[in-house]
């Protein structure tokens, strides 16, 4: 929605950004991510939305924070698409679900469990929240090139952070723990809060979306190894490299 010629929440206009956007949750991460761009500059700052632009291989790219959770992430994507973006990579933090996914790992999402409310206001729950195949492949290629051990598969998106961290204290403890057990038994990799909403909004708007998640810990796994010092940077580097890959592929297709 335009107000005084700018998108109501992200406060930018068509032409301010190009096709490719990296989406962290945390506004403080935007400047750090933009340092990987050529000619980084801050474009806007409103509510939870911080925007930086720059270029990679001569092509305009941007980074925009989504804030925490599906509602604000969906708004960011809707308004970024209005401004011309069509390719999104979420870079976030998460908590490992299956025992093999430990602190310091990175996870590339192929799809997300829709244990949240925002995506249900777009599509019925039967519709899967799936990542763009192009982006999954680009992220995998990027992680391999950078030499980062990585997992590829299903992630879980929920609305309540503390429902994940302290489920036993919630009045619906039985439901939360039964679902977590089911996700784990089925091999869900890691838990976060925005990927499902972003993937469903991308599906509805016919744009591409993928996600790469840094794993902070695995609460069920006591023997987690020491987290590598560059762990927080790994998802960011993989996303930046994946954007370069997509730029090359899109150029070749054009
Ligand atoms: O690190 P970000 O991208 O914010 O992602 C994760 O961290 C937040 C919770 O601490 C949620 O937004 C969750 O999805
Ligand atoms: O365990 C975690 C860590 C980060 N973000 C989440 O949503 N869960």
TrEMBL record:
Keywords: Cytoplasm, Glycosyltransferase, Transferase. Its EC number is 2.4.2.3. Residues 19-242 form the Nucleoside phosphorylase domain. One of its GO terms (molecular function) is uridine phosphorylase activity. It catalyses: uridine + phosphate = alpha-D-ribose 1-phosphate + uracil. The keyword rRNA processing does not apply. InterPro entries: Nucleoside_phosphorylase_CS, Nucleoside_phosphorylase_d, Nucleoside_phosphorylase_sf, Uridine_phosphorylase. PROSITE patterns: PNP_UDP_1. It holds the Pfam family PNP_UDP_1. It comes from the Bacteria. Gene3D superfamilies: Nucleoside phosphorylase domain. Pathway: Pyrimidine metabolism; UMP biosynthesis via salvage pathway; uracil from uridine (phosphorylase route): step 1/1. It is found in: Cytoplasm. Catalyzes the reversible phosphorylytic cleavage of uridine to uracil and ribose-1-phosphate. This is Uridine phosphorylase. The lineage of its organism: Bacteria, Bacillati, Bacillota, Clostridia, Eubacteriales.
């Amino acid at each position: 929605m335009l107000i005084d010629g700018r998108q109501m929440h992200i406060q930018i206009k068509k032409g301010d950004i190009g096709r490719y956007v990296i989406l962290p949750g945390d506004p403080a991460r935007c400047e750090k991510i933009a340092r990987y761009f050529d000619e980084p500059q801050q474009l806007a700052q409103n509510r939870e939305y911080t925007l930086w632009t720059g270029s990679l291989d001569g092509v305009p790219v941007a980074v925009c924070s989504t804030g925490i959770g599906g509602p604000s992430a969906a708004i960011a994507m809707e308004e970024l698409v209005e401004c011309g973006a069509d390719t999104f990579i979420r870079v976030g933090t998460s908590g490992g679900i299956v025992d093999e996914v430990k602190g310091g790992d990175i996870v590339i999402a192929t799809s997300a469990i829709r244990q949240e409310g925002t995506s249900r206001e777009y599509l019925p729950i039967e519709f899967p929240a799936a990542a763009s195949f192009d982006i999954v492949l680009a992220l995998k290629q990027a992680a391999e090139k950078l030499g980062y051990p990585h997992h590829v598969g299903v992630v879980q998106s929920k609305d309540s952070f503390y429902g994940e961290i302290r489920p036993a204290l919630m009045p619906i403890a039985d439901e939360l723990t039964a679902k977590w057990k089911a996700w784990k038994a089925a091999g869900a990799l890691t838990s976060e809060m925005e990927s499902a909403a972003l993937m469903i909004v991308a599906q509805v708007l016919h744009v591409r979306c993928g996600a790469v998640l840094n794993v902070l810990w695995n609460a069920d796994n006591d023997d987690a190894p020491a987290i590598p010092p560059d762990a927080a940077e790994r998802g960011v580097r993989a996303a930046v490299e994946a954007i370069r890959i997509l730029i090359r592929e899109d150029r070749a297709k054009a």
